């Protein structure tokens, strides 16, 4: 399976061979709510091993993380999408040169209330639902109830991937309810029998039901082999080649026997 930016993995491997000294300091991480659980688990483990380093983490969406990278208010930007060319230009104009590091894989899973009888949905049906063309569950073999369509806001990297892979760059209809995070979508769908939403794999729990897409279940296996149609890599971006504490932290995140085991603990798919 080939993702945009996948070649960065081989590039990252070279980091393991770079010697660095641990300097006491702080690391600021901002951005994607999808990457947030990974960053939190890895940072917690890293700080236990490096008690002189403090890491602060906040969400807000991939777009906001990259904005923080551009304006210099973060050391690392978490993103569930690749950086846009216009964002690269803005960063370079401010003397910052974004470096991407793939840290995990994910798939975006459509979810409904557990009481919904629907088990499978097609890519075309998803597109039609989010365009506002399909308005009742009975139109796709479900109960005779109106749909409540829930989407992410436009600053979200998850929205960007959905917009590209599901919507084929067509707009989500204005009647969709927008939520600012994966967790907010889980909460909204779990409380509404008519709702449909989409979340990163790591946010799945028993309060919502995952739908198969074109008869393929979203899982670690179908993410890695490319069978699940809405899959993606997850990134951490630095504003230049990382140094000192940031370099050591990135080394830790991508190491197969260190940070990568916490990727799976967070519910996502490790690189290796």
Kindly describe this structure.
The chain has 272 residues and is of the alpha/beta class. Helices cover 32% and strands 22% of the residues. The protein is built from ten helices and eleven strands. Strands 1, 2, 3, 4, 6, 7, 8, 9 and 11 form a nine-stranded mixed β-sheet that branches. It has a two-stranded parallel sheet with strand order 5-10.
CATH architecture of the largest domain: 3-Layer(aba) Sandwich
Note the beta-strand portion. Answer: 15-25%
Q: How much helical structure, as a percent, in the residues?
A: 25-40%
How far is it from the N-terminal to the C-terminal residue, by CA?
Answer: 13 Å
Quantity of strands, as a count: 11
Mean pLDDT: 91
> Please, what is the oligomeric state?
single chain
Gyration radius over CA: 19 Å
The total of helices stands at 10
CATH class of the largest domain: Alpha Beta
List keywords for this structure.
globular; D-Maltodextrin-Binding Protein, domain 2; 272 residues; single chain; nine-stranded mixed β-sheet; alpha/beta; 11 strands
Summarize, please.
The protein has 272 residues and is of the alpha/beta class. The chain has helices at 8-13, 36-49, 62-71, 85-93, 123-130, 157-165, 182-190, 220-224, 244-254, 259-265, and strands at 25-31, 53-60, 76-79, 99-112, 120-121, 148-152, 177-179, 195-200, 209-210, 212-213, 231-238.
Question: How is this fold's topology laid out?
Answer:
Elements: H1 8-13, E1 25-31, H2 36-49, E2 53-60, H3 62-71, E3 76-79, H4 85-93, E4 99-112, E5 120-121, H5 123-130, E6 148-152, H6 157-165, E7 177-179, H7 182-190, E8 195-200, E9 209-210, E10 212-213, H8 220-224, E11 231-238, H9 244-254, H10 259-265
Parallel strand pairs: 1-2, 1-3, 5-10, 6-7, 6-8
Antiparallel strand pairs: 3-11, 4-8, 4-9, 4-11
Helix pairs in contact: 2-10, 3-4
């Amino acid at each position: 399976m080939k993702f945009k930016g996948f070649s960065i993995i081989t590039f990252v491997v070279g980091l393991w061979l770079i010697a660095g000294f641990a300097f006491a300091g702080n690391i600021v991480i901002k951005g994607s709510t999808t990457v947030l659980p990974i960053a939190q688990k890895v940072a917690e483990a890293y700080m236990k091993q490096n008690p002189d380093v403090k890491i602060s983490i906040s969400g807000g969406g991939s777009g906001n993380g990259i904005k923080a990278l551009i304006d210099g208010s973060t050391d690392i930007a978490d993103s569930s999408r690749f950086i846009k060319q216009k964002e690269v230009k803005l960063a370079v104009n401010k003397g910052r040169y974004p470096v991407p590091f793939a840290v995990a894989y994910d798939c975006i899973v459509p979810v409904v209330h557990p009481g919904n009888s629907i088990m499978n949905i097609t890519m075309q049906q998803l597109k039609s639902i989010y365009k506002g063309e399909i308005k009742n569950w009975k139109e796709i073999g479900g109960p005779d109830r109106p749909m409540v369509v829930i989407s992410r806001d436009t600053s979200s990297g998850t929205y960007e991937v959905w917009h590209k892979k599901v919507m084929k760059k067509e707009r989500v209809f204005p009647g969709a309810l927008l939520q600012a995070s994966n967790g907010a979508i889980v909460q909204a769908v779990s409380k509404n029998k008519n709702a449909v939403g989409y979340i990163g794999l790591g946010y799945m729990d028993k309060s919502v039901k995952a739908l198969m897409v074109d008869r393929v279940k979203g899982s670690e296996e179908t993410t890695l082999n490319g069978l699940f149609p809405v899959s993606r890599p997850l990134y951490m971006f630095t504003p230049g080649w990382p140094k000192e504490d940031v370099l050591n932290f990135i080394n830790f995140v991508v190491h197969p026997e260190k940070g990568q085991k916490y990727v799976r603990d967070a519910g996502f798919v490790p690189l290796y």
